[in-house]
Amino acid sequence: MSTRVITFFSELYDSRNVLHQLVAQQLILRYRRTVLGYLWTLINPLLMMSVMAVVFSALFKADLQTFALFLFAGMIPWNFFSSVVTQSGTAFINNEGLIKKIYIPKALFPLSIASALLIDSLFSFIALFAIIIALGGTISWALLFLPVSYALLFVFAMGFGMIMSVATVFFRDLQYVMAIAMQALFFLTPILYKPDALAGRTKWLIEINPVTPFIALFRAPLIDASLPSSDAILQATMIAVITIIVGLTFFLRQEKKVVFRL
Amino acid sequence: MSSIHVEDLSIKFLLYHDRSPSLKDYVANVFKRNARSSSSDFWALRNVSFNIEAGDRVGIVGHNGAGKSTLLKALCRVYESSEGNISVVGRIAPLLEIGAGFHPEFTGRENIYLNGSILGYSKQQLKDIEPEVIAFAELKEFIDTPVKYYSTGMYMRLAFSLATAMHPDILVLDEIFAGGDAAFMTKAKTRMYDLIDKANIMIMVSHDHQLVSSLCNRVIWMDHGRLVRDGPPEEIIPEYLGGGAHA
To answer: Deepest of A111, A167, B160, B194, by most Cβ within 10 A of its Cβ?
Structure first.
């Protein structure tokens, strides 16, 4: 097993050129021949979040400015995570032609999806950050923690993505199941509300939700100008490590079957 | 020195009878004890063994469905062996399907870089070969046009020029002597022969027996996933064409 892991990573490293090309392909193709081009990547989430901020701040009778800040900080990690999980489902299916003809390390496909989405996320983060500052967010040293937040989130999402990419080849239905599951998970994750707002019978759902600590990793530096609680950091690290180990193990066991099932 | 060792190679495919099994079928099959399986095994290759050493020029012959292409794809690692082992020493070039990995929305130049990196060329190598590839494909004025606007011939020329731009240790060919007009065909053949000359090992699948006889010093005859005969072309090809009944 351990030699397999080593060959896995050395092969990935050797094909970093392909990864670079696949990421560029996704970023370039999406908006080729559109007038606004890459700006759509920023406009889309910004508009969506603005609508949500207006509606839910009115619903929760909260101050629009404070609520918008709160929402944006939670939506950045959520959008990245949910896009990685859902889009990884098509990683092999959309590249069937290539996989059946040429050997390239299969992990490149989910990895390229996650990498392209990370770049998207960083850009929309910069745009949102400008808004957060304009709305009265504070700049503090705690912001320096955000690269760590992103790294942990990436590892976590990647673990899920690797499982999804393979599992969807075996059960095509999974794409649709996951679309619904992610919607449900969105409402069970403290993004629109504070983690302690949901009391009673549904409380445990929030507590076992693995995404919850990752939201905190972003919210604390952005909103409270403080480092995330050590609890949140510890939980997020453990969840990320466990997810990537499970994801990698599953992937290494199953990837060879993928070409026969496409 | 390159070499290829194949030992007891078997590859199994699952044949789905009507459609791929959905989650529903899966759940349904849990309850139906004696449900007919929606798939059956098919052995595309069965216990194939051979060794290829440096200098060998191997032609693989056999009827459709004999497992020739599957064997090539197994050598190029597209298919993982179900049983047995393959060990390959040397850089193997996947020339199975030229143009695989081309993206229609990308320009010819972008595709050189995209497809080239998939073929295993480094960025620097691609920069070096780019002018030569464009010149050979005769696509100077169209190289910055998306390839979806290319004619079939233009597409083939670009794919061929790129795939044959570097000299691999082990050359694997699956009938790719086609494409382009007469003038390009002549040029392409010269380039192909040059590539074969410089390769340490060449393995090709072809139904053109004359071509196999002229290019290869060894022929492997496949039938129904099994290796029937392995030997010099002047011996094997007449036997194969004679339709020698083999059990």
So the answer is: B160
